[in-house]
Amino acid sequence: MHYLYLIESEKYDRYYIGQTSNLKDRVQRHNENRCKYTRGKGPWELVGFKTFLTRSEVVKEENRLKKTKNKEYLYYYFKYAAFVILFMYYHNSR
Question: What global pTM score does this model have?
Fold first, then answer.
């Protein structure tokens, strides 16, 4: 399982999009200043994540989203995507 995630630092008004196969460890590494881009800009809070079956899928989506500069879209994408998927699953299973 591979994860695409969005983290935010409210203190510095920054966000970061990344991908990993171990989400808990990756967020912890961001908060321990063990990642180059996010070092010294935390604390980082996980906004949301999406799961993918393959690394190639997650890398493709990560690159697409990193071109998006619309912060509101990114928050919607990560916070509400899971709800939309569950809603569709529930209604299609009837």
Answer: 0.81
Among 81, 22, 37, which Cα is nearest to 9's? 37
Angstrom distance (rounded) from CA 31 to CA 33:
5
Long-range contacts of 63-66 (CB under 8 A, 24+ apart): 65/4, 65/17, 66/17
* Mean pLDDT (10-residue bins), the chain, 94 residues: 93 93 95 93 92 93 90 84 51 51
Its domain, for residue 43, covers 2-92
Number of domains in the chain: 1
